[in-house]
Amino acid sequence: MINFCRPFKCIFFVQLLMNPVHPLPASNFTMKKIFLIIAAACLLLTGCLETTQEITLKEDGSGTFSTTSDMGSILGMARQLGDADKLEEAGGKVMDTTIMLGAQADSIPGLTTLEKELLKQGSMNMKFDLKNEEFKTKLDFPFSNPDEIKKINNLTGKLFLSAMKNQIGESPMAGGMKGEIPALSSFDDYYILEFSDGELKKKLNKEKYSSVSSDEYLNGLKEAASMGIPVGATYIINLPRPAEKAEGKKVKLSDDKRKVTVKVELDDFFDDPEKLEFKIKY
Q: Per the domain annotation, does 190 fall within a domain?
């Protein structure tokens, strides 16, 4: 059986990237915190780096939900933060593995019975190749009805927060960072996604968005973007039949009208959050 936590050591290689022997000095404490935010966001749909969320709907309302994150761009940054030779020694292994998430259902505190059932159906593929600066993850979940999509998003947040805390706690170089992980959040937390027969809508929750300035997690991503890291998200919805209407500032409809794509950048979320809204009738 694959140890679920072992692949997450690739995520927390940032503790080794900066210095494989000693923790960063206090002056770099903020950099460490930002890097933890980046690592977590790469595995959640927060728009961090190059993330793609794809939903495939069937006529009966069931379907599949996947999130693919391309984190190769942070490897170059990691090289700049640490000793390149030591980094090669610490992360020279190549990984391409798929983990069935069900084995972890009873080991993550706070999961509801429904969340455990959803987790048992999920899987994650991870590809990591430091030499070629490749770092990708893909989460896959089936769902029986669209209402489960939001539950899956919430579930992944709990899943990776647990993994982050475990890995930081195990590292002798954590330097007290376990208590510094901000509460995980995502773009989707600020929107209402509604499915009905033949229609789906995503609309900004204006009341909640009014407090986005206090969201330490997403504002941490904003700091990461200011450091030159590309930050963006692509939403893809595969429809069971051609769309009759597709509305939204960033909406693009395929020629066969069965595929809706919404591509946004982090600045869109902060500067014009309505760009993430859409209304699709099919």
A: yes
Q: In sequence order, what E strands does 17-81 have? A: 50-57, 63-70
Query: pTM above the 0.90 mark?
Result: no
- Residues 57, 62, 64: CA angle, nearest 5 degrees: 60
Number of domains in the chain: 1
Backbone φ, ψ for residue 206 (5° rounding): -65, -35
153 domain residue, yes or no: yes
User: Does an H or E element contain 201, and which?
Assistant: strand 199-204
List of long-range contacts for 236-239, beta carbons under 8 Å, 24+ apart: 236/52, 236/53, 236/54, 236/55, 236/260, 236/261, 237/54, 237/55, 237/57, 237/200, 237/280, 238/54, 238/55, 238/56, 238/57, 239/57, 239/280, 239/282
In a domain, 1, yes or no: no
- For 248-282, what is each residue's pLDDT tens digit? 999 999 999 999 999 998 899 999 999 999 999 99
The continuous run of DSSP H or E covering 159 comes out as: helix 148-170
Quote the domain boundaries for residue 270.
Answer: 8-281
Residue 156 has pLDDT above 80, yes or no: no
Whether the CB-CB separation of 56 and 63 falls below 8 Å is answered with: yes
